[in-house]
Amino acid sequence: MPANTCIISNNSEQKAKLAQCFERNALLSTSFPRNLQNIFELAQQSPLLLIVIALKQDPTLSKKICHSLKKNPLTKNTPLILIKKQGLSEDQQLADAYLPDDFSMRDLEQLVRQLTIGY
After folding, report:
1. Are 4 and 47 in contact (CB under 8 A)?
2. 47-102 per-position pLDDT tens digit
3. Which end of the chain is least crowded, N or C, by CB within 10 Å?
4. Whole-model pTM?
5. C-beta separation of 99 from 108 below 8 A
6. CA distance between the termini of the chain
7. Does residue 98 contact residue 10 with C-beta atoms inside 8 Å?
């Protein structure tokens, strides 16, 4: 059974770029939840391997989502990747890993391997 990854994005280009990375691995299935409740429902069905948050132009919402995911027992141990445009210094404790808005596929794939050893 494939492991679940979730992508939270409000930008179709970013969503497609992220999905392309995960489609290369047959052991991963990718979901695009519309809200936190959808993520928690997915996590109840089977453990989530990874959550990627890429909300362009909305750093406040990204922070709220990270906090909510880290507080919930279903997702608190799931690695979070936060993709953002601005500097990372103020948000170092929000996610497990960070990528710049203009990330390369190679950087994303390397980060996914590091966070999901064995997949």
Report:
1. yes
2. 899 999 998 877 788 889 999 999 999 999 999 999 887 655 555 678 999 899 88
3. N
4. 0.86
5. yes
6. 12
7. no
Contact yes or no for 28/49 (Cβ under 8 A): yes
The domain ranges of the chain are 3-115
Query: Cα(24)–Cα(28) distance, rounded to whole angstroms?
Result: 9
Read off φ and ψ for residue 84, nearest 5 degrees. -150, 160
Place of tokens 């995960």: 22
Q: Which two tokens stand for residue 86?
A: 């601005």
Instruction: Give me 33's structure tokens.
Output: 């939840």
Please state, as a whole number, how many other Cβ atoms lie within 10 Å of the Cβ of residue 55. 20
CATH fold group of domain 3-115:
Rossmann fold (3.40.50)
Q: Count Cβ atoms below 10 Å from residue 14 Cβ, excluding itself.
A: 18
